[in-house]
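Field notebook, page 767. I keep forgetting to write these up properly, so this time I am using the form the group agreed on. The chain and the ligand, magnesium ion, are recorded exactly as supplied. Prediction of the bound pose follows.
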Amino acid sequence: MSKSSLMKSKIQRNVYLVGNPNCGKTSLFNAITGERRRVGNWPGVTVQKLEGIANSETANLTICDLPGTYSLTPATPEEEVVLKTIDAAADGCIVNVVDIANFERNLFLTTQLIELGIKPVVSLNCFDSFTKAGGTIDLQKFSTFTGTTPFPTVARTGEGTHNLVEFIGRPDIISVEDCENWLSLPQVWLDAAEEALRLKDLHWHSARPTQRYSALTDLIRLQPDPIVPELIEIRQNLAKKLSEGREIPVKTTNLACELASDRYRRIEKLIAGCAIVPGKNIPAWQEKLDRMLTHRFLGLPIFALMMAWVFWTTFSIGEIPMGWMESLVDWLSGFVQANMQEGLIRELLVGGVISGVGGIIVFIPNILILFFWIALLEDSGYMSRAAFIMDRMMNSIGLHGRAFIPMIMGLGCNVPAVLATRIIDNRFQRLLTMLLIPLVTCAARLPVLVLLCGTFFPENPSIWMFTLFFVNLLVLIFLGQTTSMLFKTSENSPFLLEMPPYRLPTPSSVFHMLYEKAAHFIEKAGTVILAGAVIIWVLSVFPREVPLSFDYESELTRLRSSEITVESTERIAELSRKREIELMEGRYMARLGKFIHPVMEPLGFSWRETVSLIPGFLAKESVVSTLSVLYLPYSDNLGDAMRKTGMTPLTAFVFMMFTLLYIPCIATLGVIWRESGSTRFTALALVVYFAIAYVVSYITLKIGAVLQTSTSIDWFEGLVIITVAIAAGWYLIRTFIVTIRGSRCNSCASCSSCPSRGKSDCSGGQP
Ligand code: GDP
Ligand code: MG
């Protein structure tokens, strides 16, 4: 048989990875497809379906990595994805990834799948940690009692995944012979579900999984919706049958609880039946470490220290490779200048491409250092602890601890962060988190900070950078508190975020995160930023003819033809510069800048800074690349040029403040629009950002001026500043106190049985 006909005879199959958050689905996906998707040791990393291809001897498999979910009952938009896909998945093959180290919780989803008549292939993942901790399981019995084929896997290393792939590629995989299935739905429930389905002219055996699911949901809902008399009768009958032989009869309103406890009973039976013995789950050192890192008083300072360390290294260590990158860009620019004929093309290359894109590329080392630490913190499992510590802080701004996850993701790029808000179930909180995310400093804004802090605060740039982040954080808290105060909602779901075990980050996952960041950055530099830089360059070299105040040309020709002395060389250089500057001021860019300048003038920005904010809307990195193009005539060194044209440390600080806060880039705005589904919300958010940025920058400028006593202010401004300072102080202290004391009881779902009900130390409602 020829190779091509062999290829044709292979079966095509869609395979869906379903499992709890953080059980290793994406790792498994990567292991069997050879892709490199983001793996993280905390829930909420994958919020969208991912697809990849794998090939076994007998099949071409399309593998789909679904977002993690604890149960099929969707609580968040992210979990809904799984339920929506389940019908299609049942037609293909479902691989249920079970973190065997946490089997009890993981088997809940397995039970739900089996109840719906789905026969998943089970990947018993994290088998290494399980056996290392001394856990054991009888695989043969597991297979018999669940009617599934289990595969022990270590997705992190790929161990065991080959067998799994070969199995799911087999033509006969779907028809697993019937056997005693301890996880399947008890007969009482099956009968009731059958009756409920009959109301819709359906039968259990021929119904789709989602139809079966909705029949079960009809049975257990608190109130049947809509109220169908027949359904009420079925529910009453079911309750009556379940009550047989019990002291306390089962109420129809309690059927959901009944079903859930029945599932746990089945799981318990299975665990006993297949002799699953958990290993010693959490090593003592991990418990100790956890106690320290999530400590009520120590937790927050430790987190702050870690962040300070991250920023400090981003700056100080980053400076060295940044110097190399700068010399490389300088060399390239010199090389082009020396080897190309003078003309527009050379000018475009030097003034537009190299100075624009090069001005951005030099920041890659800083960004990599930042993400090196973030990858370590995420992969080790610390981030979930940080989310726990921040839960109280988050509550004080009306948010759920879960909102911390998208916020931290926002440090990288706001776009995936907005997507990650899908892990939040409450719509108001989702919107609020979306509103706040653009106030998280994404990596694209880092170049502005690194550049200006380095230039204007050379003694201790990282302290100033940290200050900026801190002010930014205050603004975020302020906006969050005000918004949630204005639109108070009483809903608050309990904070259930799993604490994953501490794991040693794998070099490959850290490396891939860095690679991903660098690739994203370079790609952006080569596309959006390049285009932006070229447009800026065009606007800054046209019109070619600009009326000059002085006949530079003839004076320069005269000087060049006369005797060369030190003075004449200096004079030539000076005149050339002056001419360049005057030309620049006559070009379109300057005209545009001067036109909108009055709006930004109160903040102390020159027309160059003003103009640079416009391409910043396309990509924040473009602020720096635009500045590099616009300041080129003043000096080869951007920092020098800025100082020369009158930028002071104070205005630089205010400019950084403004850049951090003003409107997010267009991509972020796009996802906010899509995810919120509301144009009004998006438009309003835009106005809010701009207004906040303006007001905060203005106040910063005034406070700075007073501190420097370089200007006096009138009583009105003084009053405003004092009021704002007091308000800011009040917020800070209040937030701090709330954080330390713990938030009030949130009256969550578990409140009636909550031991800490009404007490001040109810941590987000978790009993
Ligand atoms: P997902 O949320 O289900 O997609 O899980 P990820 O693939 O992102 O993995 C979560 C964490 O578990 C990461 O830190 C992985 O390195 C780790 N992990 C995944 N598979 C295994 C495994 O088989 N053994 C061990 N020890 N760790 C694993
Ligand atoms: Mg994942």
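OBSERVATIONS:
- The longest strand covers residues 11-19.
- The chain has a mean pLDDT of 83.
FOLLOW-UP: compare against the apo run.
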